[in-house]
């Protein structure tokens, strides 16, 4: 079941995010890179959950995927699926649902090396390769854009 993201989901989504990145990205990023990536600012995430368009895919009371869109910046900010449910269509279904509720004709995202192909299959195009610096670690990602009909 897909439902609107709620601030009460914050703890579960942070846990899912850390588990997902640690498991699904380990072939594309070093342990040090993953460590700084998952070392998030909880207050910043609280603001995201309160001020952005977000949805969760939930089954049997467990969040298995979540998505968050910054409407002001027209940016898909967070899109993560629990590693045990990856590559089973949950992220795709959630993305498609979120974009049906998205009011603009284009959306951008910074896709990790691990998520790049997911977004390419979803119709995003690579605009440029990007390097994000977090705690002196370089995290390669891709600025991507999707036109929405």
Cα(first) to Cα(last) distance is: 25 Å
Low-confidence stretches: none
The class by helix and strand makeup works out as: alpha+beta
Largest sheet: 7 strands, mixed
Mean pLDDT level: 96
Q: Biggest sheet, strands in spatial order? A: 1-2-3-4-5-7-6
Say how many strands there are: 7
Radius of gyration: 14 Å
Fraction of helical residues: 25-40%
Characterize the structure shown.
The protein is an alpha+beta fold. The protein is 34% helix and 36% strand. Strands 1-2-3-4-5-7-6 form a 7-stranded mixed β-sheet, sandwiched between helices. Strand 4, helix 4 and strand 5 form a beta-alpha-beta unit. The two termini are 25 Å apart.
């Amino acid at each position: 079941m897909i439902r609107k993201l709620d601030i009460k989901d914050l703890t579960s989504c942070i846990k899912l995010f850390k588990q997902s990145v640690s498991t699904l990205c380990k072939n594309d990023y070093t342990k040090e890179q993953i460590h700084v990536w998952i070392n998030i600012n909880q207050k910043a995430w609280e603001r995201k959950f309160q001020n952005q368009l977000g949805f969760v895919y939930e089954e049997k009371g467990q969040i298995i995927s979540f998505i968050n869109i910054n409407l002001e910046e027209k940016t898909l900010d967070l899109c993560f699926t629990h590693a045990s449910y990856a590559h089973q269509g949950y992220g795709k279904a959630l993305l498609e649902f979120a974009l049906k509720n998205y009011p603009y004709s284009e959306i951008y995202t910074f896709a990790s090396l691990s998520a790049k192909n997911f977004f390419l299959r979803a119709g995003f195009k690579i605009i440029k390769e990007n390097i994000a610096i977090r705690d002196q670690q370089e995290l390669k990602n891709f600025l991507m854009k999707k036109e929405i009909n």
